[in-house]
Amino acid sequence: MQPSAARRALALTALLLAACAPVEKKAPAPAAANEKPATMSDDAYLWLEDIHGEKPLAWVRAENERTAKAYAETPQFETMRSRILEVLDSDAKIPFVAKIGERYYNFWKDKAHPRGLWRRTTLAEYRKDQPAWETVIDVDALGKAEGKSWVWHGAQCLKPQYRRCLVSLSPGGGDADVVREFDLVDKKFVAGGFELPEAKTQVAWIDADRIYVATDFGPGSMTKSSYPRIVKEWRRGTPLSSATLVYEGTDDDLAISAYRDLTPGYERDFVVRTIDFFTSETFLRGKDGKLTKIDVPLDAVVGTEREWLLIQPRTAWTVNGKTYPSGSLLATRFDDYVGGKREIAALFTPSETTSLSNYSWTRRHLILDVLDDVVSKLEVLTPPKGSSGEWQRAPLGGAPALSTIEAGAVDADADDAYFLTVSGFLDPTTLYYGSLGDGEATPIKRAPAFFDASKNDVQQHFATSKDGTRVPYFVIAPKGMKSDGSNPTLLYGYGGFEVSLQPAYSGSVGRSWLERGGVYVIANIRGGGEYGPRWHQAALKSNRLRAYEDFAAVAEDLVKRGITSRAHLGAEGGSNGGLLVGNMLTLYPQLFGAIVCEVPLLDMQRYTKLSAGASWIAEYGDPDKPEEWAYIQKFSPYRNVEKGVDYPPVLFYTATSDDRVGPVQARKMAAKMTEQLGYRNVWFYENTEGGHGAAADNRQSAFMHALAYSFLWNHLAQAPQ
What we know:
6-stranded mixed sheet
C-alpha cells in the first residue's frame, strides 16, 4: 500500500511591473472575535446556487454566448484550439501502463476515441515503437450503446488471478460514479455481479465473493463532506441491503473506507477513518471483525508493504525519547509495532531544502523520490534481511538540471523491475525500464516535441515574501529576452493541500504561450508540499494569507527583474489555485493585467455548504465559527470584491457537472461583479460536462485551454507599455 493520494490534491500561473512601487490593496479589517458571518439574506445571488435550475442555466447560456463571441470566434482561437487538440490526441504520446497479471494496461484517448479505450498488451509488444493493443473496454462504444455520457474513472482488479475487476464510470465526469464488475477474460460486464448505482463510492476487493463497500446507503449514510460515513462487507449474490456493517463514522468525519492488502502471504484488512484532509485513524481488522487501532499520530500517513509499516508524521513525533521531525519517513516491522515494540528506523529526514515527494516499493527495495529545492533526485533503500541491521542506501541515476525524475515499481509482488520517467519544462518525457541491481535503466519510450524549445531556457529564482520567507519559482522564457518589462508573462500557482508543482513538459503551454514569445512562470508558494508538511502548514487556516503574499512577491520580483510589468502580467489557477488568483484579483489587483480563475472556490462564507466544501475545513477553517470567520473573511474574494477598484480583466470558467467545488461560486462572483458592481471586463464560461476538470474529453479540454490562453494573450500581449 502506498501513501494515500486521496488526501493530496491539484494546479497553474502569472506576473508584472510598475514604474513606481505598487501600493498593496489592504485586506479587510479583522472581524471582532464575536462577529458573525453575514446572513444568507445578504447574498443577492443565492439563486445561482440552484445548479440545474432553469433560471440559472439561462444565465449561464447567455454568459457563455457572450464570452465565446468575444474570445472563441476568431481564426486565431480556432488555430490555437486545433493545435492544442493535436497535442492531446497525438498518437505519439507515451501510453503509460500499469501491470495487471501478465498484461500491461493503458487508458488512451485520441481523436477516434474521445472518451477513451482501456486496452492491454505484453511487455515485448510495449517495447516496440508501435505496439499491438487489444481493446478491453471502448468507453465511447459503451456510452453509445447505453445512451450514457460515460467518463472513465478506473478499475480495481482482484489479485492474484486478476480476472475480475470493479470498474468505475462517471456519467458526465463528476466525482460520483457507478461501479460494475467486469471479467478480463471474457471482456464483459458480469451478469448478476457486483453493481452499485451512482454515488461517491469507495470499493475494494476482499476475495472473489466479497467486497468492502462505502457508498450512499440512504439518508444519514453520507458525511457533511458528501462522502461515505459507513463501510460494509458485501457478499456476492446477496442484496446490498444485507451487507454487514464494518464501521460507522460520524457526520463530521470526511469519509470512511476499508480495504484488504492482498499481497500474497501478508493479507491484512484495514479500516480507515479519515477525519479531515490531514488527520485519520487506521485500524487493523481481525478475522473476527475486531478493530485494533494502529498507534500513530492522527496526522501521520501510514503505508504497509509485506512485513513493514512505514510512517510519515506531519508534525514532530517523539517515540522512546527520540524526536522525528515533520516530513520524515520512518520504518518499523508491522507485527512488532502492533504488538507494542517501538523499534523505528528513520529512512528519510528532511533538511531546510529537501522533502520527500513519494516512495515506491519493489519486491526487495524501496525507492525514495526526494525534492531538493523542488528538483528531483532518487535513492534506493534496501531493508535488513534479518531481525536486526541497518537499511542500505544508494543513489539511483541522476536527473537533468531543473527537471523531475520519478520511479515506480512495475510489480512489487514479483520482482525489482521499475519504470522511470524524466521530464522538464523544455524536455519531453522519456520513459525508462530497468531492474534494480541489473545496471542502469534503458529508455523505451520518448514523447514527441510539440514545440521548438531551442528558443527558450529555464531558470530558477527565489523571491522574498513579506515575512522574509524565501520562495522559489521557475521561469521559462525566450533566450535573449529583453528586460524591459514588455514580455507577456503568465504566472501559475496552487499553494494548498501539500501539492507540489514540479518541472513538467506541456505541449499545450508550449504551443499556446511559449512559441508566441510568452514567458511562463511556476510559483512554488507556501501551502504546497515543495518543502514537505512545514511548507503546507505555514499557510493553513489563519495563516492563509502567507500563500497569497508569496505569490504577490513572485509577481513583484518578476517586475523588478524587468521580465514583465503589470500590463503584461497574467495569473492563472484552478480549484484551490482559483481561490489563489481570486485573492490576487481582490487583494493585489495592482499587480496583474489579466486573470483566469478556473473551477474556483470564491465564496468562503458558504463554501462548506456547497458540493464537497465541508471536506476542506482543515485547510481553510469553518466560517460558521465566529473566531474562524474572523480570518477566513480576509481571503474570501466574493465578500471582498467592491466598487471603484481598478481590477484587471478576469475570466471565470467552471463546469455544471463539477460535484467537488461546484459551478456556483464562479457563477456568483461573475454575476456580482457585472450586475451589482458594474464591472464590464468580467467574463464567464461554464462547460456542462467534465466534473472538476471542466472537460470530459480532449475536444472539450482543448476548447477550455484555448479560451484561457486566448483571453490572456489578448489582454497581455497587446497591452500598452
